[in-house]
Specification:
By secondary structure, the protein is α/β, with parallel strands linked by helices. The protein has 6 helices and 12 strands.
Length: about 230
């Protein structure tokens, strides 16, 4: 087995079978979150980050160049779901907080189980369309990551950036075309959402199509230039 750090606290792991894999150091050794493979290299446990279950993992494997989430980053995560990707983000940031917003109470109950082990995950039951409702909890952050299946995905990121993102901080957003319009060409939708982000105050510095892991998805990375 071979391992190489490709981003801060994100590792490319070669098991010798020709498959490209990435992983994070286990913040909570021996604990699985979603049935992921655990491996030990030189006495350190790593969690294989499955790109079929995480859009951020898929983007990294597909050639993401700008990965602003790192050790010590304060993160606002919109659409935490049951915690698959947030758990890896927690591994990366280590002791730094990930404010994790989820709208569905049933899924939040599952996510709370993940938060019990990873103390830097801060669960927030809330609507990402209404950042004012959790402004008493969330501080200024370095990065916002959004994975919310809503028709106004770009606007949601801009709204939250206006409330919480530091100047020259980063916004990362997974755009799901079919959540916006099931008929229109996804390329048109991606272009439209990109323009919304730019007009809203972001300078787009990276974009990665994440097929074949997710159909009609793209991930944008932007630097916040808004006030």
């Amino acid at each position: 087995m071979k391992i190489k750090e490709i981003f801060n606290n994100v590792y490319e792991i070669d098991l010798g079978d020709g498959i490209k894999r990435i992983g994070t150091k286990s913040l909570v050794p021996s604990k699985r979150v979603y049935g992921e493979k655990l491996i030990e290299i030189d006495g350190i446990e790593y969690r294989i980050w499955n790109p079929n279950k995480s859009k951020l993992s898929a983007a990294i494997i597909n050639g993401l160049k700008n990965m602003p989430i790192k050790r010590g980053s304060k993160v606002l995560y919109l659409g935490s779901s049951a915690g698959t990707t947030p758990s890896h983000v927690a591994d990366i940031t280590e002791n730094s907080p990930i404010y994790s917003v989820e709208f569905a109470p049933r899924i939040m109950r599952e996510f709370l189980e993940v938060c019990r082990d990873r103390k830097n995950l801060i669960p927030i039951l809330g609507d990402a369309n209404m950042p004012n409702t959790y402004s008493n909890i969330v501080e200024t952050v370095d990065v916002i990551f959004e994975d919310v299946a809503q028709p106004n995905q770009g606007e949601i990121l801009v709204k939250n950036a206006e409330w919480f993102l530091k100047k020259n901080g980063y916004g990362m957003i997974s755009i799901k075309a079919r959540s916006i319009d099931v008929v229109r060409d996804p390329k048109e939708i991606f272009k439209e959402q990109k323009e919304i982000l730019i007009k809203g105050g972001f300078e787009i510095v990276d974009e990665v199509n994440i097929e074949p892991f997710e159909k009609d998805h793209i991930l944008f990375v932007g630097i916040w230039k808004g006030e």
